[in-house]
Specification:
This protein is about 35% helix and about 25% strand.
């Protein structure tokens, strides 16, 4: 798959006091907010990252947001999802 046909994403956890989980889709960022969004993600702890096929991007974003919501609904100290579970839930959208 061509690099231009996929979107890089990351699920991360903020390090500040609320420790919220967030998702970022790097290649869809708007120019005016790109640096701030990337800096925020870089300051967090990566939970999962990968590439999504652009032809499935809308559905994949919804699936990623569901995972983020699930993580944020968990008890703060026990929050987490194994990589294998994330891969299973996003399997229809992930590309190498």
């Amino acid at each position: 798959m061509n690099v231009a046909d996929k979107t890089m994403f990351e699920i991360y956890r903020e390090r500040d006091y609320n420790r919220a989980f967030q998702a970022i889709f790097y290649t869809t960022l708007e120019e005016h907010s790109r640096n701030q969004a990337i800096a925020k993600a870089a300051a967090g702890d990566t939970v999962f990252h990968g590439f999504i096929a652009d032809d499935k991007l809308e559905a994949a974003q919804a699936a990623v947001e569901t995972i983020v919501d699930d993580l944020n609904d968990m008890d703060e100290d026990e929050a987490g999802i194994a990589d294998d579970e994330v891969r299973r839930r996003l399997g229809a959208y992930l590309v190498e």
